[in-house]
Design brief:
The protein has 198 residues and is an alpha+beta fold. 41% of the residues lie in helices and 16% in strands. The strands form two sheets. A three-stranded antiparallel β-sheet has the order 1-6-3, with helices on one face. A three-stranded antiparallel β-sheet has the order 2-5-4, with no helix packed on it.
Length: 198
């Protein structure tokens, strides 16, 4: 995961701490940004199905299915997966009915559908792809984490946690307004045949 120096410096600015130039520099600010940035980004990505972080990928079927008694198919996950959202119909597949069930366990996706295509949130996001409100929410969340190790201030941490929550809610509302929520109907071929009586 690439750590954004820009977002780190926005967070450090909230603490009135000196900015960093490189994440590998020998300073407490750089060390703590490297420590907390990945966690703050992951937590924020998991809170909502961000439209800018959404990707779709066909999954590679695994030859060994450790849960074959419960799930017909096992798949490897994309390397940049943050959160699995839903299975979407493969190109040319029938789209009838509701969402397709699946679980993710120990780095494997289990499903009842052949040729699974996954819609997911990625954890590899360029700064330029992040909307401004998401950047603010991430910067406030990071600043809250940095308040104690960088400034030894639990009071600042509490205030920044409140600001981070408000910023996250605003970013989520903005993303929802830009991208209406939808559930893509999807039914595998066997269920579709049962529904239409073929």
């Amino acid at each position: 995961m690439t750590i954004s120096i820009t977002i780190c410096n926005l967070a450090l600015g909230e603490l009135r701490a000196p900015p960093i130039v490189d994440i590998d520099e020998h300073s407490i600010e750089a060390r703590e940004c490297a420590r907390y940035y990945p966690q703050c980004l992951t937590v924020l990505l998991e809170r909502h199905e961000w439209s800018f972080a959404t990707k779709v990928a066909a999954l590679a079927a695994l030859t060994l299915n450790p849960r074959s008694g419960e799930w017909a198919y096992a798949y490897g996950l994309p390397a940049d997966l943050a959160t699995a959202k839903r299975l979407v119909p493969p190109v040319g597949a029938m789209a009838l009915g509701g969402s397709q069930p699946f679980i993710v366990e120990a780095g494997i996706l289990f499903a009842q559908v052949a040729g699974a295509v996954l819609e997911y949130s990625t954890n590899i996001i360029a700064d330029a792809a992040m909307p401004a409100m998401f950047v603010d929410a991430l910067a406030f969340a990071l600043a809250a984490r940095l308040a104690v190790p960088v400034r030894d201030s639990r009071e600042a941490r509490g205030q920044l946690l409140q600001q981070a929550e408000v910023a996250a809610q605003r970013a989520i509302a903005d993303d929802r307004n830009r991208q209406p929520q939808h559930d893509m109907p999807f039914t595998d071929e066997v269920t579709a045949a049962r529904l239409v009586g073929v």
